[in-house]
Amino acid sequence: MFTLIIYVLVSVGVSYFLPWWVQLLLSVLFGFLLKYPFDNHKFLLGFKLTGLVWLGLSLVLSWQNDFLLSSRIAEVFMLPHQSLLFVIHFFIGGLLGGAGFMLSSVVKHK
Amino acid sequence: MMMKLKRLFTGLFFVLVVVLFSLKMGPLPRLGMFFSPSQGYVKNGLEADETIPEFVRGSLIDKATIHFDGNGVPYIFAENNHDLFVLQGYVAARDRLFQMEVSTRLTSGRLAEWLGNDLIENDRYFRRLGLSAAAERATEKAMNDSVTAEILTAYAQGVNIYIESLSKEDYPIEYKLLDIEPERWEPLKTILVLKNITYTLTGFFNDLRNSNTRALFGESFFTDVLFKDFDELQPIISELGNTVSKKEPAPFNLKNYFKADLTKQKIPIEPDADNGSNNWALRASKTKNGKPILSSDPHLTMSLPSIWYEQSLNTPEFSAHGVNIPGAPCISIGFTPFLSWGVTNSGSDVADFYQITFRDSTMAEYLFDGKWLPTTIKKERIKNRDGSDSIENVVYTHHGPVVFNSDSDSKTHTEIPFGAALRWVAYEDGNELNALFEMLKSQSVKQYTKALSDFGAPALNWAFASSTDTIGMWVNGKIPKKWDYQGMFIADGSSSAYDWKESIPFDDLPHEINPKRNFVSSANQIPVSDTYPYYFDYKMAGFSRPNRINQLLSEKNDFMVEDIQKMQLDSYSLVAKKLVPVYLHALSEIELPDSMLVFKHLIESWDFVNEDKQIAPSIFHQWRRSLHKLTWDELDAVNVPISKPWLDNTDWLVVENPTSIWFDKVDSNQKETSLDLIQEAFSDAIKMLKNQFGSSTKEWIWAKYNKTDLKHIAGIPGFNSGYIATSGFSESINAIRGTHGPSWRMVVEMDAWNSWAYVTYPGGQSGNPGSVHYLDRLESWRVNKGKVVKLYPSADKMKTASYTWEF
User: Fold this and answer.
1) Is residue B623 in some structural domain?
2) pLDDT digits (tens, 9 = 90+) for B67-106
3) CA–CA–CA angle B196, B199, B203 (5° rounding)
4) ipTM for the complex?
5) In chain B, how many domains are there?
6) DSSP strand pairing (B787-790 vs B756-760)
7) Contact yes or no for B769 and A17 at CB 8 A
8) Model confidence over B578-605: pLDDT tens digits?
9) Nearest to residue B18, comparing CAs of A21, A23, A52, A22?
10) Does a structural domain hold residue B578?
11) Contacts of residue B45 in chain A, CB cutoff 8 Å?
12) Min CA distance, B45 vs chain A (Å)?
């Protein structure tokens, strides 16, 4: 549990300051450190946690801009509603975390 | 086995995620980067711009200050020209980098390597048009002059300081979306921006259309239809000085002018008939405060980011407030303590095609005055985004480039005749930058007009007003002396009789200073009456807008700045006033069904104002268009590019020649007159409106018909303005026609250092769609309640800054 909290906190910092692929490396690294029993659910775990980090950060940053830009970007991607844009944030962050956790999990369990 | 499969699957999945997020796929940006909170678009929403860019200091010679007002407009105070232009370049790049790059890449034919292979035809066109080659020559000349070299170098330096300060996450949003990188700015690029203005304002290539029209319909079509205008049209210059003709005798007339081959080229996009602008100036005696007033509203396609960038430029030598095109130093339209000025397009024909007789298919030699002269061939290498490239061989004669040889040269721009060379003022090495700089420094009308004489292209109508109560209008630019109709059609490139010789001398160009009526005005109408000593080729705007301006300005002698502001919004239509009685008379001859009477009544009670909430203007304009279409049914079958009559020409026929043969319909056995067509057009118009807007007439209001929606320059859908309810139309002073219209509105009261102005424009300072300054001027523009701007002799005198950078 403690590792997961650390993972989320470090992810917030990494995703806020560093390029997106650093988040991917971070999730691989933490995937190794995790002593979580449900190996089969590691993907979902990484997906949810990292997705939430990306969702949260994008929401805060967009809120600072009164959602001015995000509403325009939603139109650029022809999304029927702006909230779908944040679903994309969640999904992309999620895939980074999920893929990383899953990779380390299969490498670890020989 | 299971584990192996699982590992293989996981590994593949991992690689897939990496690939999916790091590559640019189709129109999508690189997803990982674009949606990343650290590098993606969300970063562009943060207003980090206000922090002082300390790194600029190292490039400045002396101390400098920039105050930004509440709209993000920079007021730059520098101790010398170098520092001023470094800072002007820096702030322009900070706010408008993408727009600046698009402009230079478009003009130099370098868009495909940046944005993708589908822009290749566009690049080929601009390469073959030769603006890049012309800009290179002009840059070389400008860099040999110490004053312009300093301006160009300092401005480029400022832009580059900004570009170099960017890491990927700081790139403007368009760069992230389109996955492109900014490129170093060079003096050449500023010259390209200036060439782009000349292209926009003078690049109408009508010669092929005119030649075809003459071949098909004869000379009389010009004299009886296309040249016709209402007698009441008032030319720009109200008092012509010298009227003794200085025209060269014409070696050819409309009948024996060179006849080019009637080429089978596709129907091109029609030129924009309603491009135009207004400017006027009043002497002190016409104003309540006893101070001269100048008004300027240039009409252009109103795109986003806004065409204009507003700024205040100050050194110990000068102080000026106004706008310029981002990428160009100085100020194009604005005011100083001494002078204010605004421009409209003169519309004179400064682009002529010459049919070339080549000796053989190598195009190495061409015939000229009985001799074979050598051509030169310039190779243009066009790069694609995918890394491939292609070569365009452009043949140059002494006239200019042979833009297209055959339809393999371009699938677009069918107004360009094949095998003809183009002579165009855009190819000349102008001194425009120096002219703009000298205007900033001018302290007298004499100095100002001297500066003006350096401004060659594009030819513009310059209205100006001084604090010392001198007003003037100068139709200025490099305008070749021509004999009657010279250059109207494709000319014979093998005969020197058709060549341009010298230009009309500056002092002979149409102008007036302090005319008796105590005001000057222009609205793209013909500059002079027939008694002007030179031939002036022109076709741009009808009587409605200029006459309305003159009518309102003549009405009183106690104008306030606010009256002029209101006048810029005047949406009255003199065209409607003239046509509606004629239209209604035609309707009175027939029995209308009750369902149609209601629309007739709307027109009967209309006050001729193209007002946003009214339905009558929609009915009238659709009626006028339907009538135009019915009248020119003869042209539907024509399958080559021709000069089609304008709405103005049809208006003239309807009023002055109602039994003209052109009203007789091709596919009927009876003989129709204008009356028959007006009646038919009325029901056509109502049908059209119903089809387009539905049967509820509430939806027919003028604002919805004349739909204004500002579009982003790269056509990115979410970056447009959305629908804006506007009044006006091209024949009104408030010439908003769809997305085309007043791109800057300024009213200045001239009073030395107390001079001030109301200014506004459609959009905002910032090119960033995530900035509050992207569209923050839009509403003030729509209702023309511009903000007050003043001049400041020094930085400490300006107390109202929103934030300040001190270097």
Assistant:
1) yes
2) 999 999 999 999 999 999 999 999 999 999 999 999 999 9
3) 170
4) 0.95
5) 1
6) antiparallel
7) no
8) 999 999 999 998 888 988 999 999 999 9
9) A21
10) yes
11) 61-62, 64-65, 68-70
12) 5
